[in-house]
What does this fold into?
Amino acid sequence: MDFIFDGPENAGQKLVLAHGAGAAMDSPFMNIVAAGVGAAGIRVARFEFPYMVKRRLEGKKSPPNRQPILEQTWRDAIFALGGPQGMVIGGKSMGGRIASMVADGAGVAGLICMGYPFHPPGKPERLRTEHLHQLSTPALFLQGTRDPFGTTDEVPGYALSSQIEMHWLADGDHSLKPRKKSGRTETQNLDEAVAAAVAFMQALT
It folds into this structure.
């Protein structure tokens, strides 16, 4: 399994991130978040699911692997990086969702989801929240207020575990990017997301 690392090698805390369904581990979003958290003195590791590794090798798009394979890849990554102690896992969209499905069983210290896909866009009845009702791992969800996968009008009505802290990014879309007319910038939202992630991890120690 290949990883990209940011932050000091001897850091006391580790954050492991997985990519979303459509973009690789070195997408601009992932690069910015990993570099920002790493600059705060946290060791950040990124990895790719098998379908994305295949896409990188062959140059052809392929759909995500089935859920059991995605979950096992997460467990393999946790093991390869030394185990769950002091480790926070998470990621962008699908990567964070799969992390949330293995977090309790793996015994990690925390969970950070960026742009959690609460439901497919335009299909609010197809919720992906059942496992979040009883989540026992401390969790931070960084969500844009107008994310079509779960907006600020929808998510507060969901039955989510009290362990989940929602942090809303003003006017952010699924990648936390705001519209120009909002007066916010993408940099501001990403900086805020990184700061929230770092503060969440520091509070775990």
